[in-house]
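Sequence dictates fold. Next comes a concrete instance:
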Amino acid sequence: MTPPGSSISTHLDWDYAPAPESAAIGRIRDRYQMYVGGRFVDGRGDDVKTINPGTEEALASVSTASIADVDDAVAAARAAYDQTWSRISGAERGKYLYRIARGIAERARELAVVETLDNGKPIKESRDVDIPTASAHFFYHAGWADKLQHAGFGPSPRALGVAGQVIPWNFPLLMAAWKIAPALAAGNTVVIKPAETTPLSILVLAEIIADADLPPGVVNIITGAGDIGAALLNHPGIDKVAFTGSTEVGKQIQSSLAGTGRKITLELGGKAANIIFDDAPVDQAVEGIVNGIFFNQGHVCCAGSRLLVQESVADEVVEKLRARVATLRLGDPMDKNTDVGAINSATQLATIRSLTDAGDAEGASRWTSPCPVPDRGFFFPPTVFTDVSQSMRIAREEIFGPVLSVLTFRTPDEAVAKANNTPYGLSAGVWTEKGSRILGMASAMRAGVVWANTFNRFDPTAAFGGYKESGFGREGGRAGLSAYLDTDDEFVSESPSASGISDAANSGISDAANSGISDAANSAVTDSSATDSSGDRRARQVRGASADTASADAEEAATLAVAERLSEAEALADAVGVIADPSGIETPDATTVRTARIGVAKTYKLYIGGAFPRSESGRTYPVVDSSGAFAANAAQASRKDARDAVSAARKAFRGWSGATAYNRGQVIYRIAEMLEGRRAQFLDLLGSIAGDTGVRDTAAAARDVDLSIDRLVHFAGWTDKIAAVFGGANPVAGPYFSFSTPEPTGVVAAIAPQANPLLGLVSVIAPIITSGNTIVVIADRSQPLPAITLAEVLATSDLPGGVVNILTGDPAEIAPHLAAHGDVNALDLTGASASLRTELERAAAGTVKRVYAPTRVPDFTREPGTARMRAFLETKTVWHPTGAVSLAGGSGY
């Protein structure tokens, strides 16, 4: 009973009381050392202080590496690979990975505290997301170590050797697990460098690795700034490079490694679109928006930083979003109730402020959460911009902070167009109640991961990675494992050159063809008035001059001059023949006819968009047969021809990639049928071509024609198997259905092998178009006639125009324009010389193109594997809830 005169307060304080985690659990030491060769060692660089972003106070000193330390670490990794790791069984490797997984789980709370203190992210995210997922990656990949031959990469996948890895500061331990676990499972050894601002958790991981008795040198951890990372990734002792970080740095890495033949994985920046349709459950969508952009303070490459809302619900969504964001708690990362922690560094905080100021200047409307901001530490309040246009920097550039840009759309097509209107392609989100719309949007968006009615879900079984300038290669799943395996199975010998295929071998032109024409030929026709018994002019002999051509320019000038001289000589010979035998002139009442018919000379043109245009350059070059005799003039493609071919390929891509796998298979099989029908023609054509010995026998010609037909049949049968073999359901944790599906990369520019003018060409084209890509291919320069004759087969088959485009001429003149073209998505440099390949790989780095550049000499007579086909497949991973899911999606908000 309430005493008289007293009152009961009806006000209740619902604010969260502080719930700090104890920093002592992290057992932060005063100083940390690097881990090289199985020992903790001091680096030769200067010690650096690592800073707690939440307080701006120093946490610990860290020894850093010098260039000499990089050498030591790579040497230790190489010795471990050669002497130990490559020799033990997959089952034994798996046991070591299981030990590491258990060690992480056993020290999970300690690792979570270390991660939060060093990185600034909320302790609940470190505790509930980063550390458990890191352990899960080691556990998952441990199971693959003795099952690699069953992973779908051929019967004998092999380790690459020593992997050099550089990871960012936003998920330090998790990124280390993403990189180290698949590398070790595949049989590689590792040298890894963490970001200079967040080295502590991986150095604790080094203790776990040491406790697991991992053989010395299998994992080596060096610390330092960007110069050490560059030295590591460019070290000549590295066989595989893996980098996660900004797109600009990724471009520099790809460019610097051009021509080295190293396998590269780049996981780069993003500007993900999170799309809300008018039928979406708004409250659940708002939670997904919050999770998509404010998780880890927006320090997420796949953050949903562009919100696309259908106009009819835009006001409602924005109003509820602001109300929800206003409740987020910004503050001490060590407090278990904190939703948004500290920005990782003062440098990143300055970047966020600069870009948000640009949003103000460009006319966007800024709304900032009213939450209190701590007086010290690197903090930025959650911010939402409306009235945003696609041209604004906040809609185009990766801010990497808690900043959201809101745009609107009316139709699904407009949403797709806006979502894809970015150089990035890492992730996307879709919110709608219509299952058909989810699948349609997921297919239409050029993004490596698509979350449907959820966001920011990750699992070791599900591949993660991007399209376009978000990089290439995948992390997680079988696709991520393949990045650390040598699965090429069509090569037979190491090339003598450092980059695999020598300039001389790949120039592909015999001395006779490459040097121009002999002095005798330059004087036109030998005895131009002579005729054979049938009255035909004797064949013009085109003999080779010295192989020492001064330069490509001199070669081109000589070729043009010879072609001009030959034309003049032909005209002269025609005139001489008429004078010598005027009866051969046909008149209306002529009764004299030739005793043998003269064949019609064939003009060899380019093949672009299903048609045969002449080159825009107006230039040709002579082609000779096995005896050195003039065979025909071939077109020298120009930059304009290259652009036209890319345009045709891009135009054809949508229809070809959108065709059913069954229909693509039927079309490719039809090409095989057509080629079979013209077998005799190709036997005759190939039989006239000089091989390496100067003579091409009919048996070799028959082998190449028959194998070319067989290759088309083989890849026709792959079209409806690709999704089943290289895609499938991902057994992810939680109430989600996730599947990965392979998709074509897009337009591929290729240089055909400068040998095997038919079989090599077919072996390049077939695996590329099988999965729905289109191609622009430069044929063997010295012997382009089989390629253009094959184009006649393609033109009379059911293949849509533009799916295959064939150019002839000098690859050194044409290929650089293709490599730099913004509408080319990938390069196949099988036929490029070593020097040209380096140039083209550097050009490809400008837009982060996929590059397939084999370093071994191909033997196309072997049964084809899957490596060439997989090189031009993207893996898209889609997630969708399957049942009751918390509105927060597990984020804890």
About this structure: Residues 493-588, 885-893 have pLDDT under 50 and may be disordered. The longest strand covers residues 736-744.
